[in-house]
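for the recovery benchmark. tokens below, seq after
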């Protein structure tokens, strides 16, 4: 089973997202997804990448025509409660860029329309 943050299972997250999609329909333009996808025990860039990627993928599948604006929480970094060090910064934000934009078809489509997003992110 793909890893998700905390104790949430893939099936539970899918249920919640499907229920939300059915309830909301097409009545909104996008999703502002608050950070803290990962639980306090998540450590290391591979695990953080896996969790962030899996949650982003689930959102993109549930809401394929919506832009998903992610944010970074204190548990979504390689070292809990610490922003990436100066020597890690480029690698961390490039990884998040790949997860949030390259890995999400609607976000990627939005980039084609507005190139300033990439300039301001990186």
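predicted aa per position
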């Amino acid at each position: 089973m793909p890893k998700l943050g905390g104790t949430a299972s893939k099936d539970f997250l899918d249920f919640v997202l499907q229920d939300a999609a059915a309830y909301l329909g097409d009545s909104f333009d996008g999703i502002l997804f608050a950070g803290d996808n990962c639980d306090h025990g998540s450590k290391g860039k591979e695990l953080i990448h896996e969790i962030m990627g899996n949650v982003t993928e689930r959102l993109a599948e549930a809401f394929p025509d919506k832009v998903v604006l992610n944010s970074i929480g204190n548990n979504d970094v390689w070292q809990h409660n610490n922003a990436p060090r100066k020597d890690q910064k480029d690698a961390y934000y490039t990884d998040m860029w790949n997860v949030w934009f390259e890995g999400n078809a609607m976000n990627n489509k939005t980039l084609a329309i507005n190139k300033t997003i990439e300039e301001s992110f990186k």
